[in-house]
Amino acid sequence: MKNIVLYGAPGAGKGTQASLLAEKFNLVHLSTGEMLRAEVAQGSPLGLRVKAIMERGDLVGDEVVLSLIDKALTANLTGEPLDEWDTHRRQRAIDEGRPVAERIVPSIIFDGFPRTVQQAQMLEFVFSRRRMKLDAVISIDVNRDELIRRIHERAAISNRADDNEATIRHRLEEYEEKTRPVLDYYKVSGLLISIDGGGEISETNTRLSTLMEHILAD
Ligand code: ADP
């Protein structure tokens, strides 16, 4: 089992590539953007809290995102709980580091997370509690002009509320200020691998697939 973070600016193609890799290598794909959009679509209390934040292109609070990741890890690493007591028993086993019955251990690809240094540190804490570790961080590098071109192209066809002119600019500012430092954080840890993502979807996918084969076989 491997845990891989797919890193990239808005428009770098993280979501597209993470989906392709998940299908090809049978990975669990955890996208915080998708999880948040699902909460908004359901109109859950959390969704109501984050809707306006996302529409402005601001980052959602670290605690909120971490709670979603933690919930998704529990669901994916222990299987769907049977009832409330099952959830309770399984959570206790995880907290106490005991093996959980019939535990399926898939490899996971994280998409759009961690997006701040604080989230990266929180992920380490969550992992250590679950006796997990991060195996690789893959950065999809795309230059700024190409990023802007792609987001506008997507905006023309998507119905995402945050794909409009003002919000796109703000998302890129948020990225520069809060997310780029995550790269340095992982560079120091020796986990970072960068690939060129400026070409076609299929070219980037070929590069990533070769890399994944190595990471998963290791
Ligand atoms: P993109 O990378 O194309 O902007 P995402 O789907 O990853 O798209 O994210 C959409 C929005 O969801 C972000 O602008 C932000 O408001 C919120 N979001 C997603 N992931 C995170 C995260 N890890 N931390 C904080 N906010 C997040």
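DSSP finds nine helices and five strands in the chain.
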